[in-house]
DNA sequence: GCTTCATTCACCCTAAAGGATGAATATCAT
DNA sequence: ATGATATTCATCCTTTAGGGTGAATGAAGC
C-alpha cells in the first residue's frame, strides 16, 4: 500500500528517471514517430519499448493516436513545466535558507561587536 | 542486469521521484537537520527514512556529517542543475522541432501557392 | 560500569520496474 | 481468404523500491 497516491509530478519524475525513456522523449521532441521507429535504436525488445511508452503516457509526456494498425506517438511538454517548477522552487527555498542563515550569523557578529564595545 | 549503468542524472531523477524524499529535501533546503528530525513529520518508520536518505546521498543531493552519535544532513543543490538542464534542453529541442515542422509546412504552402499561380 | 539515545544493519514482505518470450489482435496488401 | 505487419496482451523472471521489525553499533549521560 502506498502511503500517498501517486501524483502527476511523481509520474513525471518516474517517467524521466530512465535513460531509455529520456532517449524516446528526445526522439519525439523532433517529431512524431511510430512504436517500431522508436524501438529501432534500442537493443531491447519491442515489447519493452511498448511498456516504456505506457509509463510515458501515464505521465502524459506522450500521447498516442491510433492510425490504422500503427500508433503515432507525440511529445507533450506540459508535464515538464511542473518538474521544472519544483526544481526552481527548491533552489529558491535553499537560497532563502542561506540568506536566513546569513542574517543569523550577522546578528551574532553584531551582538559580539556590541559586546566588544561594552568591554 | 541493467542495459546501461545508472548515471548521475538517473540517480538524481530517481531520488526526486518520491514525495517523501522531496519533502525531506524541502525541509533540508531551510537548514541542516538530524535523521530523527527529518523523520518526525512522517508516518513511516525511522528506518524507512534512513533508507530514503541513502538514496538522496547516492544522488549527492544530501551530504552527511557524523557528529558524535547524531548524523547531520545537508542539502546540496548541484545535482538539480543537471536535472534542470535536461528539461530545458528537451523543451528547446521540442521548439526547434516545431520550427522545423513550420518550415516544412511553409515550404508546402509556398509550393502550393506557386502551383496555384501556375494554374 | 550501566542506561539511554541516534542511527544503522540484517532480514522479511509486497509491489513495481525492466527485461524476455510467445500468443492474440487488428489492419493492410495481395 | 491469405499472409504480412504493427502493436499489445499474457506470462514469467529478476532487481529494486518502499515499507516493516528486531538486533547491533556507538556515543552520551549518569
Overview of the structural elements:
Two copies of one chain form a homodimer. With 119 residues, the first copy, chain A, is mainly alpha-helical. The first copy, chain A, folds into two domains: 8-76, Winged helix-like DNA-binding domain superfamily/Winged helix DNA-binding domain (Arc Repressor Mutant, subunit A); 80-119. The first copy, chain A, contains five helices and three strands. The first copy, chain A, has a three-stranded antiparallel β-sheet with strand order 1-3-2. In chain A, a hairpin with a 2-residue loop joins β2 and β3 (70-75). In chain A, α1 crosses α5. The longest helix of chain A has 41 residues, at 78-118. Mean pLDDT of chain A is 89; it is low at 115-119. Chain A binds chain B through residues 3-4, 7, 10, 13-14, 16-20, 22, 25-26, 29-31, 43-44, 75, 77, 80, 83-84, 86-88, 90-91, 93-94, 96-97, 100-101, and chain B through 3-4, 7, 10, 13-14, 16-20, 22, 25-26, 29-31, 43-44, 75, 77, 80, 83-84, 86-88, 90-91, 93-94, 96-97, 100-101. The first copy, chain A, binds a DNA duplex (30 and 30 nucleotides) through residues 1-3, 14, 18, 20, 34-36, 44-48, 50-52, 55, 66, 68-71.
List the helices and strands and how they pair.
2 copies of one chain form a homodimer.
Chain A: H1 8-16, H2 19-29, E1 33-34, H3 35-39, H4 46-58, E2 62-67, E3 70-75, H5 78-118
Antiparallel strand pairs in A: 1-3, 2-3
Helix pairs in contact in A: 1-4, 1-5
The first copy, chain A, binds a DNA duplex (30 and 30 nucleotides) through residues 1-3, 14, 18, 20, 34-36, 44-48, 50-52, 55, 66, 68-71.
